[in-house]
Amino acid sequence: MASAFGTQVLGTVVLWTLSGTIAVAVAMVLAALSMGRQRVIRLFADALITFTRGVPTSLLVVGAGIGAMARPAPTWLVNVFPGTSPGLTLVAWAVTIALAFGSTGHLAIIFRTGYASLGAARLEQATLLGLTPTRRFALLLRESATATSAPLGARLVHHLHNTAFAALFPVADFFGWIQQRANETFEVSRYAAIGVAVYVVLSLLIWAMFRGLELWLGIPTRRRTRPAGQLGPVIT
Amino acid sequence: MMDLLTDLLIGLPDQRPGGLLLSMLSAIVAAACAVVLGTLYATLCAAVPLPSMVLQAGLALLRGVPLLLLIFALGQATTLPLAATGFVALSLYSLSHVGETLRSYLAAYPKALREQATLLTLSKTREWLMLRVPWTIRHSMDALGTHWISLLKDTGALTVLGIGELTTVARLLSERATTSEWLLILLLAAALYLLAVLTLIRALAAMKTRLAGKGM
Questions:
Q1: E strand or H helix at A169, and its extent?
Q2: SS3 letters for A93-117?
Q3: A153: distance to nearest CA of chain B, Å?
Q4: ipTM over 0.85
Q5: Which residue in chain A is spatially nearest to B180 when comparing CA positions?
Q6: Among the four A24, A169, B50, B108, which has the fewest Cβ within 10 Å?
Q7: Closest to A70 (Cβ–Cβ): which among B154, B171, B179?
Q8: What is the distance between the alpha carbons of residues B168 and B175, in angstroms, rounded to a whole number?
Q9: Nearest of B175, B208, B198, B164 to residue B8 by alpha carbon
Q10: Residue B165 in 3-state DSSP?
């Protein structure tokens, strides 16, 4: 049981890492395109962002899973999913991409807001430095991390929770294992408690990772939290 | 085509109300319950900050649990009908987010307004009902709106119990359909979700404009 538990947790970690990485990469591209000069490209990027924000991840996963189930896995496709049978590699990849797509729009908005928070003066400064596009991108990414790191961490915790949708298909993941064990043994409370503990620990690890990133980037700790959208005391 | 759209909108013939109608009903009922309970929770936290720490920790723990796991655990551990289980799970999930939002805004209630209430010799209960709660709801509207949009999409998680909301209907119809039809079914379902979300965004914007027009 211990090895099965480890494999399923690893399955969730792999799903989260792969889909999260794809989501972050595509979100950065979409955020950049949505602020581009060409109107057609801007509209296309905005439409894609709206679509991924408006359609539930559950439906995206269902669509991708059903579509992939009908097709055999190509031989060149690598099976990086622990516990998933090689015949279902295509389904696992389709679910991974659907999970990534489910978070892309939200992440793109986070990146765009972070970029906008830098202000025109700092953006002009970055241009005047005469850096290569790659170095300018790295500089702006680091500068905007003050605004983006906290919501990015929160969204990636939500993304971890979304990986549970993989259980709708025969793709090895931790929630699927919880469901299976609870149904086999009728010990629902026990397995639900294990599930809660593991997801809470994984969520805490993501939170700690982003706090570490904030410290590494030298972002000051937020001492007093003011609710979002509140500029100051409002007397009505 | 019309039959398909009807099934997606109001559910399969033997499981009505379902589809988008059930998704929206679930989200509205859960959101309403969460706002009422969240207001009580926020009030309790503001009144007795230290003793309420246990409750706050419980809610923080609940926020760390995936909605799917919550739905599954409630579905297996309770004898409630499936639809009721879905409502309870969604309400708890929403409460874990809304409660914290309302708590932070209630804690930020300006001192000047408290002093105004004292000058007007308002009782504690009247101040709470007439000033504090409306101020908190108004100022947290942006955060609440974002959560409600997310909640509407999250009703798709009820598919794990087989409750006939929009994702479940789309899934069942797709599994029965031919390869060419499943894409149409899923695209229609996606369009319906998108339409519902865009309508909700518009409604929230209109509500904000209306509140602003009333000087709120």
A1: none
A2: HHHHHHHHHHHHHHHHHHHHHHHHC
A3: 13
A4: no
A5: A67
A6: B50
A7: B179
A8: 11
A9: B164
A10: strand
Type of residue numbered B40: L
User: What are A14's two structure tokens?
Assistant: 């792999």
Region for residue B18 given its phi and psi (left: phi exceeds 0; alpha: psi -120 to 50; beta: otherwise): beta
Which of B105, B116, B167 is nearest residue A58 as measured by Cβ atoms?
A: B167
Q: Do B73 and A192 touch (CB under 8 A)?
A: yes
Nearest to A163 by CA among A207, A136, A198: A198
Which residues lie across from B165 on neighbouring strands?
Answer: B19
Please report, in tens digits, the pLDDT of each residue of chain A (236 residues total).
668 889 999 999 999 999 999 999 999 999 999 998 899 999 999 999 999 988 999 999 999 999 898 888 898 999 999 999 999 999 999 999 999 999 999 999 999 988 888 888 888 888 788 888 888 888 888 888 888 888 898 899 999 999 999 999 999 999 999 999 998 998 988 999 999 999 999 999 998 998 888 888 876 655 444 444 444 333 33
Instruction: Output phi, psi for B165, to 5 deg.
Output: -80, -175
Half-sphere CA count of B182, side-chain side, radius 13 A: 20
B128: enclosing H helix or E strand: none
